[in-house]
Hints:
Strand content: 25-35%
CATH superfamily of the largest domain: Medium-chain alcohol dehydrogenases, catalytic domain
Bound molecules: zinc ion
Largest sheet: 7 strands, mixed
Helix content: 25-40%
Amino acid sequence: MRAALLYGPQDLRVQEIPDPDPDDAEGIVVEVEAATTCGTDVKMWHHGHRVLPPYPCAFGHETAGTRADTGERVLVSDSVACGACPPCRAGRPQICRCPSWVLGGFAERIAAPEAALHGIPDGLPAAAAAMAEPLAAAVHAVDRGSDAQDAGILGGGPMGLMLAALLIGQGRSVTLADPHPERRAQAAQLGADAAARLARHELVFEAVGRPEAWRAAVAAAAPGAVVVLVGGCPSGSEVTLDPGPLHYDELELRGAFHHAPAEVDRALAALADGLLPREMLLGPTISLDELPAALASPSGGPAKKWVVDPRRTMR
Length: 315
Ligand SMILES: [Zn+2]
Ligand SMILES: [Zn+2]
């Protein structure tokens, strides 16, 4: 089969590799119909990632397709928790100490443990279903917040927009801040107030993943606020936070990482219910051969995901 393999930083090659073997321990073979790209893929392409196996390696973690054995349409979740470590036993599988990662959506086929597979609701196209992977993380992040009516979101990428859609769906008022006017327009389309900077809010979500954004999220917190850090800063990043408000304003900083399996099903149901305008985040559908150029293309402009359809040949 054809697959996109990372050979090192910014070295992505599309090549023929052996098909996954349904009889080996990797699990169920899924014929990929859509694998969406996200900021994590761009990071992986630029400088690798702690969850990647040694090079050369397959990647792509937002994957939807059809089970080769039963024909059922499924979303392939990107990991399976161990079920035995202390966080798993405490009901927090998203911070499992030894998850099995299921990467390799940028290929014609992927093998995944059955526990990673989630049935796709009828009528939801594969490309939209693939977005349940990041949306599940947004569902989790909203649950990590408080029930404050007034929320601010820093960052209008796909994650920030998904957070906005979920919070607005719960009847809350949302302000989303992003320097790009195109992303502010997307937020406004969802019903959020859009701004270049955040004022103070009782509930703040950071959805950028850079040290300066963590700092800005704390600066945008009203006294007593909860600040949910959704965007990841790699370990060792230097984050300088003003400690004053943490103490005097009793701010609560909460991390939100990844998602639990039930949150993937909630995300699929929300997508089937039309949580997001279908075309808002889905960019052009491309072939595997077009993926290297897509990952190298500059970000900016509206928040969009590329949809890789590995059945497609180069246009
Ligand atoms: Zn992703
Ligand atoms: Zn575990």
